[in-house]
Amino acid sequence: MSCVLIIDLTDGYGQPLPQNELPLVNELQLGAIKTGNLNSFCYTVGMSASFPAAAARYEAFCRWVRSSARPVVRGVARLFRDEMDLQAQWFGGEFGRTFTGREGEPIEIVQFGHWNRGAGPDFTEVAVRVDGELRRGALEVDVDVRDWERHGHGGNREFNEVVLHVFTDQPAMNRVFTRTEDHRNIPQLLLPQFTGLEGPPDFLPEAFPGRCVAPLSRMTDGEVESLLTAAAQHRLRRKSERLRVMGASTTGEQAMFQALAEALGFRQNKTAMAILAQRCPVRELLAMGRQEREARLFGAAGFLSVRSEGAPVGAASRAYQASLWDRWWKMRDSVETISRRAIPWRYHGTRPQNHPQRRVGALAGLVNQWEQVRSIWEKNVNNREKYVNKLVKTLSHPFWEHHHTLASDPSPSARRLIGRDRLRDILGNVIFPDAAGRHPEIWEEYAALGRVDSNQKLRRASLRLFGDNEARRKLFTRYYHQQQGLLQIYDDFCLEDASDCRDCPFPEQLAQWRNPAPAALAVPAGATG
Fold first, then answer.
1. In this predicted structure, what is the pLDDT of residue 81?
2. In Å, what is the CA distance from 406 to each residue of 19, 103, 285, 305?
3. In the list 52, 85, 105, 108, which could disulfide-bond 101, CB 3.0-4.6 Å?
């Protein structure tokens, strides 16, 4: 027994864990030892590395690998899906509040302002401190600095009140300035290329077994698990940091509300749900009655306009849509946007039960029970998965339990507003990342979360790393943290490679994960990244 413990209690580089990082061995692990199920035992111990120590080792490993990689020059299309995606990240506070402008001047966002519903700059009633001077006005967010002139803003008097031009890309050689109609210079802010968790959007290469299949196949199950654990911890910490920055830029409650909305939106409609949460702040929704807040959500989403819906089918659909409209028209003038600023919902590849309208219905259900939802992060809950699962089971809605859209036929049987996979993603993307910043010990609880159904990106990641080894692909996607670790490695290396796997340094450097780390990989004592 002690021999097995000595072999498997190692860090990400094959070194014995420090005494203060040794995990406790529970009864399940002892049972695995007694029955001789060493794979199960190695797997369980492997995922017990303390949080966030393994994350720091993974980050050091990534720096080491990238130090020998060829730089990749990306086009702008790779940075953000579109301009509204960038605007949502900006307004959600994911970039923070303090920056350095293009002239080296300090810039502080004092007030993010409001989404503009009509023509003109993207955000109004903004307050910005530029080099110590407080300026009030509007703010424009573009993907490319040249979009200012391409879109005709320089000759449009509606943009004369802009006090800051924010963008993510500019020409490599020539400096482009931002001017008003009367040729007044506007301060510029070049944002970092990526922020938050996701990194590059999903322009995925076709999947094929990568060159890392061979070195990974020579690694023990425990070594592979330690790599996935470290990558998962790194991913969890990045999510935690994103929520912290968003909370500091807006409020902690609004950051959690937006994160919950994003988790309900699936990958296709994550940005759309984030924009909806920003245009319908949770504090404003809570000040309304239940029916009014539902009308606000569905109206702001654009689902009550004539162009978005056909005639309702059935008495229940007609009655519900009429109820929403009776309240929406009273607030419509102060909420509805012009078509250019409409929320970009995506319907392709979405299952009926995950239709965007039903996702908004689920969000309304969460707001209707907001006191219980808020208690998840305000209280130190002992078992977060059990607590959230119990709460989700209590969510009910007489219409959305039986309908997929506002105009659909009713389904004969009721369906839960939030299914198993959505519950896991809420836990993994919102609840645990929020808690991780305050309670590092929650890692063991997080590591026990079960898997979610596979998706295209996860299948590609598994094929790239494990090839046709079906046994390993199943072994290392059984838990949520394993899936997250796979996705992180895929993002960090496969999506960063532009040589069709040929020049990727990851396969050769995997040996550094198994053996003692060289000096370049050393993590300072007590470092957590």
1. 54
2. 58, 51, 21, 12
3. 105
Q: Per the structure block, which two tokens stand in for 306? A: 């004539």
Structure tokens that stand for 212 in this block: 């890392």
Is the pLDDT score of 185 beyond 90? Answer: yes
Share of the chain above pLDDT 70, in %: 80
Measure Cα distances from 82 to 87, 212, 273, 344 in Å.
Answer: 9, 33, 15, 10
Tell me the average pLDDT across 95-121. 92
| Whether 126 contacts 102, CB under 8 Å | no
CB 145 within 8 A of CB 170: yes
Report the alpha-carbon distance of residue 487 to residue 458 in Å, rounded: 6
- Judge contact between 68 and 58, C-beta under 8 A: no
pTM: 0.78
Element (H, E) at 126: strand 123-130
pLDDT band at 521 (very low <50, low <70, confident <90, very high): very low
DSSP state of 503: S
Burial label, 305 (beta-carbon count in 10 A; 0-12, 13-18, 19+): middle
Element (H, E) at 487: helix 480-489
Q: How high is the pLDDT of residue 107?
A: 96
Token pair 């219980």: residue: 372
Whole-number Å distance between alpha carbons of 223 and 229? 10
pLDDT for position 515: 65
Nearest Cα neighbor of 480 from 428, 419, 420 is 428
